[in-house]
């Protein structure tokens, strides 16, 4: 099944209530942003694979996301093949 959250707090609530096999996470969200979500997930040891989607192409942003536990960081809009490859790799390991 697929869930959608409009902000970071809602994403974390849904994540803890019914952990998904994978999470697509935008860094830019109202209130709690994607970095905050990754920080909380790391602090609480929430082991859900995350694919971060961002328009920011800076290496420092990518590196921070990976350090916080993201499995992949894709630039928006993601190429179809990149997204499928990331999802396939994650779901094969679940």
Short description:
It is built from four helices and three strands, in the order αβαβαβα. It is of the alpha/beta class and 94 residues long. The mean pLDDT is 94.
The rough form would be described as globular
Tell me the major beta sheet: 3 strands, parallel
Low-pLDDT parts are none
CATH class: Alpha Beta
Derived from helix and strand composition plus strand pairing, the structural class reads alpha/beta
User: Which percent band covers the strand fraction?
Assistant: 5-15%
CATH superfamily: Response regulator
* Major sheet: arrangement of strands: 1-2-3
CATH fold-type name: Rossmann fold
CATH architecture: 3-Layer(aba) Sandwich
Spell out the helices and strands N to C.
Answer: HEHEHEH
Report on the structure:
- By secondary structure, this protein is α/β, with parallel strands linked by helices.
- 45% of the residues lie in helices and 14% in strands.
- Strand 1 (23-26), helix 2 (34-43) and strand 2 form a beta-alpha-beta unit.
- Helix 1 packs parallel to helix 2 (34-43).
- It is globular, with a radius of gyration of 12 Å.
- The two termini are 15 Å apart.
């Amino acid at each position: 099944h697929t869930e959608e959250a409009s902000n970071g707090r809602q994403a974390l609530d849904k994540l803890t209530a019914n952990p998904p096999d994978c999470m697509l996470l935008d860094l830019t969200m109202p209130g709690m942003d994607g970095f905050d979500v990754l920080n909380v997930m790391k602090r609480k040891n929430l082991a859900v694979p995350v694919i971060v989607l961002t328009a920011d192409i800076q290496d420092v942003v990518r590196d921070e996301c990976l350090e916080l536990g993201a499995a992949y960081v894709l630039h928006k809009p993601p190429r179809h093949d990149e997204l499928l490859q990331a999802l396939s790799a994650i779901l094969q390991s679940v």
